[in-house]
Amino acid sequence: MSRRALAVLVLAVAGCSSAVSSAQPTPTSTPVPAPTQRAELTIYAAASLKGVLDAAKTAYEIANGDVTLVVSTDSSAALETKIEQGAPADLFLSADVSNPRKLVDKGLVEGAAVSFAGNQLAIIVPSDNPADVRSPADLAGEGLRVIAAGDEVPISRYASRLVTNLAGLPGYPKGFAEAYAANVLSKEESVKGIVAKIELGEGDAGIVYVTDAMASSKVKIVHVPTVANVPATYAAVILKASSQQAEAQAFLTWLTGPDGLAILQGLGFLPPPE
Predict the structure, then answer these.
(1) Which of 7, 90, 230, 259 sits CB 3.0–4.6 Å from 242 for a disulfide?
(2) What is the pTM of this model?
(3) Percent of the chain with pLDDT over 70
């Protein structure tokens, strides 16, 4: 075969190969499914529940991969006011029953309030206890610096009842309640504020929840007689304006179930008082 004929043959084969190649179907990529959008559940909670909700957020989001918990903590009274003013919360967890009841009375909730936990009170002092506070009776001592909370904060109402109960016990001085009130140096916005000032030594004593006292390594606890202690009831409501009512109900059911109760009790909370 001549060189010219061979060249023609090579070009012809190449052309056929190109034609076959161009006839092959173009491979298509497999479509990637869009990621599932996670529902955001906004929870307003009492400051004393921060530790509970830190733990609950981790556990709940692992068990429910389609929900993200967005938690905001403050005093129950402040949160109730924000909700009344239209703050976009889905679920309100309060350190009392009176603030949820206000929202119920105003028609701002879906369903009834649900009691989900209990607490008791403790007296805390700085770790070095410079004022040498040894019993609740010392809260009336002259010159003692007591750190309290604002009148609308639930801990203040519980503390007031505790002081009244203590004043009625044998051995407590006449005018105990009045002397305690005179010793109040400042009123903080939440129980966390009381703990912070006692930790820093900016006060000699304060009345807080047992759970907050247990959570701090920088304070000492002064025993409160059981007969005088005051049970605190924590209650929750689902907000009518919420677009995540089903998710809010699911979380509340979880919180009052075995997993949620294990977290609450592990951090010192009690079952809600009967």
Answers:
(1) 90
(2) 0.84
(3) 87
